[in-house]
What we know:
Chain A is mainly α. Chain A has helices at residues 8-36, 38-41, 55-61, 84-91, 102-110, 130-135, 140-144, 161-168, 193-202, and one strand spanning 116-117. The longest helix of chain A has 29 residues, at 8-36. In chain B, α11 (323-333) packs across α12 (346-361). The longest helix of chain B has 19 residues, at 64-82. Chain B is globular and about 105 Å long.
Amino acid sequence: MAQIFHPSFNTLSKVSIFGAVFFLGAGVWAWDSLLRSSYNTQVNVARHQPVPFSHKHHVQGLGLDCRFCHTSVEDAAFAGIPPSKTCMGCHSLVWKDAPILEPVRESFRTNAPVAWTRVHDLPDFAYFDHSIHVRKGIGCTTCHGQVDEMPLMWRTETLNMDWCLSCHRNPAANVRPRERVFDVHWRPDELDDSERQELASKYHVKSMTNCSVCHR
Amino acid sequence: MSTRTELGPEEAAELEVIRARLTQARGPAFWRELEAVAEEPALRGLLEREFPALFARTGPGLERRDFLRLMGASLGVMGIAACTRQPDEKILPFARSPEYQIPGKPLYFATAFPLHGSALGVLAESHMGRPTKLEGNPDHPSSLGATDALAQAAILGLYDPDRSHSCQRAGQISTWNSFTSELAGRLDGVSGHRGEGLAVLHAGENSPFLTEQLTRLATRFPQLRTYRWTPLHRDHARAGAELAFGRDVAVRYLVGGTRVIVALDSDFLFSGPGAVRYARDFARGRQGRSFSGRMNRLYAVESGLSVTGSMADERLALRPSQLEGFARGLANALGVVNAGAPPLDARVERFLRAAAQDLAANRGAGLVVAGAGADPIVHALAHLINRELGNVGSTLEFTLPLEPLLESNSASIRQLVEDAKNHRLDTLVILGGNPAYDAPAELDFAAALREVPFRVHLSPTVDETSELCHWHVPETHFLEQWSDARAHDGTVSIVQPLIAPLYEAGGARSAHELVALMAGEGTKSAYELLRAFWQTGSGKDAAEFEAFWRASLHDGFIAGTTFPPLELTPRADLSLGEGSPAGAGLELALHGDPAVHDGRFANNGWLQELPRPLTRLVWDNAALCSPRTAQGLGVTNGDVVELVAGEKRIEAPVWIVPAHADEVFTLHLGYGRRRGGTLGTDVGCDAYALRSLEAPWRLAGVRVRKTGFRHPLATVQKHPDQEHRNLARVATFERFKSEGKLAFAGEHASPHDELRPISLYPDFAYEGNAWGLVIDLNACLGCNACMVACQAENNIPVVGKSEVANGREMHWIRIDRYFEGGGEDQAGEGVTVLHQPVPCMHCENAPCETVCPVGATVHSDEGLNEMVYNRCIGTRYCSNNCPYKVRRFNFLAYSDYSTESLKLGRNPDVTVRTRGVMEKCTYCVQRISQARIAAKKEDRPIRDGEIVSACQAVCPTQAITFGDINDPASAISRLRSEPHHYGLLAELGTRPRTTYLARLTNPNPELAQGS
């Protein structure tokens, strides 16, 4: 019967198979770049909030400790976002009529929550516990970055699983003394390697890489 | 072209045309032509004949193009779903944070679950103000930390999507205010005649507060009529007590001290007040560590096969009408005079002699228990026998009845119907219950109800009774209301709400609030009234009462309310009458269902899908009968028969149960509901249609007719035989004492029958914690509490009847039930029933881990076989390789992602899985993590007993023990060193961490029927 394919198809098919390999490679590279880009990971992307809460002002300017607002960080898995009542503790006196604080005042009046945008968010199948990390000497700024320099909140780390594992496989590299956990002025080079190892063994820090530690 | 295919001349000609068209086309035109040609009938017909399998239609026929379109679309959708950025989430803190509430840390509150006319003390776990799980209250006498399947599933009732959201008047949505104003009008109308015409029907939930409220209502309306009706009543027990003592009494069993128990048609280990406690005490008597002690012995006399009967060492299957004769014979043999015993046949006589001798040899340590469905005379005889043997005070105590009854339930409902038909009632308020569905059929309650000019029904959903009433008022769930309830020994618990009523805005109220409204106290809340009631009741002044109240709420029970034992003597004019002859012909026994109870849980998916304890049926009820009866009738499983009792008839499918009595059918009540919610309507057959006032529990002279139809029944276990594989090991106590481990050697037991056979896999040194689980088959009743607890704790979905029929049920722990012995047709005698809970074995050499292509299931260094849902791509190779078949696959998107109310009840500590993902028992890894984190924060090791898996916590008999096998002092290590400890299929080399203690039976040597 008659030929379905024109002879030029021979060349076309060879070229396209050869080219497909490169095309696939390029595709994979592009996809990977997209996944690691800040569009996807939201690293260094300041997030819009209903109230432009400035950690820089409150932490650096006023000297508030993290735990003043994030109260359950030493007791529970979730560090806690302060209720509007905490804000109103000061802002019923200070800046009490400022327009940017209207959502807070409204929330306090109506008992409806302020709808903050979540900046540090893990997928629902990953379970993270703040209290144990804090107890073992992992400081706030290690994962959340220099919060005292942020006029609006953004992520400094991807929160990808490979980032979590990079510490879990070698936790001693990120340990600091317990009394310095909430100190924003901590610099990792304040301790040398041997001191860090000592601290890690003092705090019984283990390398926890079982899947069920985070995935339940 | 195949030469087999025959073509007709027209078809051949058409094919020639097609061939010509194709030959002439070129390039793209060729493909378009091919597409068109593919649809030509002639070609299609040829291909269908040539390749029939390609065109086999299973389900809705999908054309090729549609199929590709769908696949393409799904791929696209899946791709999009998987490859977007993580969606933005909001964080919503409180405006004012409530005290003690820390997100992620649950709070526990003590309350009580009212059922069976008594209450079970529970601790409710509350996440951010939402109750998600119920655990037993360790300090409560009915619970001792355990619960049963119904209590576990009760939490789903709170979030039932079919609950009414608002009041309804004649089927139209209305408001609470409209209701109160109309009710006020009616009450004004009757108050002129001192309340003549006002009536209240309540459902017998045993609340001292409600009793008091009804009394106060009666002072406002002196002519008030109160009725009560609950279908699973204890009228016969009451009548029996009257017969023996001249008054109603409650019996509290002290099973812990017994050596011999004779259960007369009683399921006391599984249902009824105190069942959870009795099960615990009973199991204690069978779990002698290193067995230097004795085992208790249980005789069960029953017609069907119940959970208690399945644990019995000696079992006698009798027709229900023969039970009275047996009881009289037993009484005679033990010295109760005038028992009027009829002659019994040899088999029954033999059993009776043995039981009587055993009881007589254990005076003061024996117990005779009569079931709720036994005739009053049997109850009376049981009381007299216990007295005669001196058991009173040591193995049982008589107390005041849990709820003082002026008349029996049957008399009450009969009176109500009569009053209604004779137009003596003007306004009827029905508090809970569902009498239009479960009242005795001959009364025609629905017709009587229509005679009442104004009817109100307070119930959680619009059911059969609400349909017939003018007003339907949504009832709050016990987790939403303030109330009180009495436990099996009289101890009162305050029922405190865990959450504000979900549908309060629409008018959801409790029975207390409604009665308070009627009594003119509507301005006060139930909380205030309840406190006032207990302040009077406790006799304390205001200052002391506050501490007393807080202590009662904290502990979960009110100290000092336990009933003291009563000293009783038989009545002077005791007359036991002559025995009535045993019935002839087929008999029918009616029981409450082990899962849906009296029908109230018909819409509870967890309970409908719970495999019933002995039949392993789901989503249905069936007419249970023995193999011989079925053979005689020529029916098999699934054949529909018609059961006729007098004028009444129903159709039910047959299900064969070994060890069932011959010529008897057992039917469970609670099915066939016409308006039971989305899940509960039209499930099973309505056995209430056969129930009468005079014979609520058994019928004689029943006729059976084959209809020729079949009804598909779904069961989770089709094969009840172990096939000599020694899975659930059993031996007699005597043999075990003399032979030890060898008593369990089965046919294929190897001389090296060890837990850790030699393996080619390299050994791994488990340092630190090594988790394991031991299940004691001596204690397991097969009650299913663990199955529902696991479902509640781990967000396990309900799949429905057709999926269960395909073997796709999602329970992470299942209870395998085996029948051993009993001869060819397993008829009644000598059948041993074995229950074996099977969760994941967490094998050290897990066959599932090596075959996962993506590493979604791996092993932790503490011995856990971990499941990582986000990695799983659904090859199901792991389940294929698992010898225990404990892995469950989400073939479809079983989890309900859309219904709002169900989202509230999920456990936030466990991932909710979607389709395509494998899941299995995780040893409650969320609880292990919690305990580990708590221990590490305090710089201490995890204490033994700190981690309690869901199944362990809930088990009434404490059959399951979890712990660290590396710790020689832990409870589990002690159990593992017992001689009757073994692993399931350990010879395969899997090295399971979940292991068992073999079952020991204690048969009477006099009755040796081949062990």
